[in-house]
Amino acid sequence: MEASLRLMVGARRLLRRSGPGLILRRLRHKKKWASTEPKFSSTRLALQNFDMNYKVQFGDLWPSIRVSLLSEQKYGALVNNFSTWDKTAYELEQLKAKDFVLEAQRRVQEKAFPEDPSTPALPPELETLPSPRAPWPYSPNLHCYTFTRGDISRFHPARVSSLGLLDYYLMDASSLLPVLALGVQPGDTVLDLCAGPGGKTLALLLTGCCRHLAANDISTSRTRRLKQVLHSYVPQDVSQVRVTSQDGRKWGDLERSTYDRVLVDVPCTTDRHSVLEEDNNIFKRSRKVERQMMPMLQVQLLVAGLLATKPGGVAVYSTCTLSHLQNEYVVGGAIDILANQYQIDAQVEELSSFRHLFQDTFSFFPSCPLGELVLPVLWANFGPMYFCRLRRLT
Ligand SMILES: C[S@@+](CC[C@H](N)C(=O)[O-])C[C@H]1O[C@@H](n2cnc3c(N)ncnc32)[C@H](O)[C@@H]1O
């Protein structure tokens, strides 16, 4: 009532000043503006979409995944080996945080020396651990601290050490799993195809194994952030990184059969971000086509990544979505394209022993047909993180 009164007074004033033409123009403008106003926020559209699809995909597990996605996520502190790492590790241990990678390595050691009488017997599911001759087949030298199950303490922001470098990098701890699964070995040439803002690139460098590391991202703003991360964490004399800003889909033509290890950490619907943040949300109406084309882009990037891998080399595909259309289906699609269009064989490698190693820290989806999927749960609110390890055979 009050609003229509104000409208009438305003209209009368306008009529007096400028005649009926202007009023009509203003009203027309107002109507157009009102009809383009979004009915639902992007976060709400994302939740509706997930409710529809993930109920089918995850059944009874979906309500608990949903509430975890909407709750505060947990972080991990990736220790910067280039900085005063021993001091950092000591300080993190004082906070009662645990290095989940070191704990997994200890479990492998226990398997390697089972005859040691002081070693407790392993539970049957750990019998699939790697053989004693290859005690740690995953990327080495990575140390990441998390608070234990159910502990929702937060890490303080990273600090500059006496060496002038930041002491740790805060990330969703499950983001380290694709890098660990890549199994970088000393002297490897490595490609990080979609690298910005650079958490995984930093982890790859921290392995101390990369003879040469190519870090690429199509977005110049993301490669700028990547360079800032490198500047804050890595000494200037570490020079084996090359940063580029190209379309990763071209890599198969640019550098075919070149790299020992390739990480393909693709853009996706970033499920946690999509249900929480309006800013840069892929569920905005204006980004509908981009969202629909996402699986196609992901297949193209994975194909390019595998083409850039040497025969016998390894690529890891990863996303932070629960969607099987962006996960297993993409892996299956890329393998088919490689076989049919390029006569190249690539094969998914089993990661079930890897899953057993880290199951105290993360909740894995038990029935993922290809690769592994970390589910957000309240006792370990990491992820979602999907990763799949592929070996290029020919
Ligand atoms: C999930 S993010 C990568 C996160 C990064 N690996 C990290 O750990 O910090 C996906 C990235 O892919 C980039 N991207 C999107 N399309 C691309 C393309 N065609 N080629 C290369 N990068 C692309 C985006 O700019 C975005 O930075």
UniProtKB/TrEMBL annotation:
Q: Where is the SAM-dependent MTase RsmB/NOP-type domain?
A: 93-393
Q: Tell me a GO cellular component.
A: mitochondrial large ribosomal subunit
Q: Give the superkingdom in one word.
A: Eukaryota
Catalyzed chemical reaction(s): a cytidine in mRNA + S-adenosyl-L-methionine = a 5-methylcytidine in mRNA + S-adenosyl-L-homocysteine + H(+); a cytidine in rRNA + S-adenosyl-L-methionine = a 5-methylcytidine in rRNA + S-adenosyl-L-homocysteine + H(+)
The listed locations are: Mitochondrion
- This protein's UniProt keywords: Methyltransferase, Mitochondrion, RNA-binding, rRNA processing, S-adenosyl-L-methionine, Transferase, Transit peptide
- Give GO terms for biological process: mitochondrial RNA catabolic process; mitochondrial RNA modification; rRNA methylation
Any one GO molecular function term: mRNA (cytidine-5-)-methyltransferase activity
SUPFAM superfamilies to which the protein is assigned, alphabetical: S-adenosyl-L-methionine-dependent methyltransferases (SSF53335)
**InterPro entries hit by this protein:** MeTrfase_RsmB-F_NOP2_cat, MeTrfase_RsmB-F_NOP2_dom, RCMT, SAM-dependent_MTases_sf
The record's active-site residues are 320 (nucleophile)
User: Which residues are noted in the entry as S-adenosyl-L-methionine-binding?
Assistant: 194-200, 217, 247, 265
Family affiliation? Belongs to the class I-like SAM-binding methyltransferase superfamily. RsmB/NOP family.
Q: Can you name this protein?
A: 5-cytosine rRNA methyltransferase NSUN4
Q: Which organism is it from?
A: Monodelphis domestica
